[in-house]
């Protein structure tokens, strides 16, 4: 579990998150929704130790410093070393050499060998996203933080990503954000809204047919404005 307690993050005089608390549980995908600029990426940066903040973040009761190698954050830009090949970038992401045979077991046809041999600067936005997802599937980290991973993926890749997230969450805490409600409708187990400096858990049960758009609109109508 990832536990956040009274986390506050400000940039200069602008408070983005004000004393927010939440628990993201293992075996579930915790999905964060919220308008542009609400603070989703900022929260993820705090979870990954990339921003200073007040309040606490614990990973199964331990501070980030103790578990850092088990935390795998993926940000929207999917930063890669541009002059290195896809394979070499996987090496850096995983801390070990990665063979095509390893990739093939998880890539399921969405990323081929020739693409991984190209320098990363020649990869499309969607291919970079898929490279990171392959890295995740091979690393099997305990804590996964995904900022807009589904952005830019084609139809088949989205089906693969959905199945990949279902696999990943079996032994991980997965926290994700993104604006594609129709994709996350069948991915999200727990839903949190980031708005007005706050973070609140919404009533949502995808097994009962709940829709994220309805949950979002209800929160928007009745939540803090
Ligand atoms: N380094 C920074 N310095 C100053 N302000 C920042 C910085 N990073 C983010 N902000 C501000 O913090 C607020 C939250 O930004 P953030 O990127 O977390 O939003 P978001 O919810 O991820 O948005 P989106 O849905 O557009 O990705 C915004 O007002 C943004 O301008």
TrEMBL record:
Domain of life, source organism: Bacteria
Protein name from the UniProt record: ABC transporter ATP-binding protein
Limits of the ABC transporter domain: 2-221
Entry annotated with the keyword Secreted: no
InterPro entries for this protein: AAA+_ATPase, ABC_transporter-like_ATP-bd, ABC_Transporter_VariousFunc, P-loop_NTPase
Residues of the signal peptide: none
Gene3D superfamilies in the cross-refs: P-loop containing nucleotide triphosphate hydrolases (3.40.50.300)
GO molecular function list: ATP binding; ATP hydrolysis activity
């Amino acid at each position: 579990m990832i536990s956040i307690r009274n986390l506050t993050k400000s940039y200069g005089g602008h408070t983005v998150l004000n004393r927010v608390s939440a628990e993201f549980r293992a075996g579930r995908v915790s999905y964060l929704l919220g308008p542009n600029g609400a603070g989703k990426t900022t929260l993820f940066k705090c979870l990954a130790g990339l921003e200073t903040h007040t309040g606490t973040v614990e990973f199964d009761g331990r501070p980030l410093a103790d578990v850092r190698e088990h935390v795998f954050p993926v940000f929207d830009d999917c930063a890669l070393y541009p002059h290195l090949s896809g394979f070499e970038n996987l090496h850096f992401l995983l801390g070990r050499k990665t063979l095509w045979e390893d990739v093939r077991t998880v890539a399921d046809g969405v990323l081929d060998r020739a693409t991984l041999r190209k320098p990363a600067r020649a990869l499309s936005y969607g291919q970079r996203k898929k490279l990171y997802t392959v890295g995740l599937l091979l690393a099997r980290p305990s804590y996964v933080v995904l900022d807009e991973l589904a952005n830019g993926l084609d139809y088949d890749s989205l089906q693969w990503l959905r199945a990949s997230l279902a696999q990943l969450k079996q032994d991980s805490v997965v926290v994700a954000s993104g604006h594609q409600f129709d994709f996350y409708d069948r991915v999200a187990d727990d839903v949190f809204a980031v708005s007005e400096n706050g973070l609140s858990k919404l009533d949502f049960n995808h097994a009962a047919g709940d829709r994220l758009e309805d949950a979002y609109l209800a929160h928007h109508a009745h939540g803090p404005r």
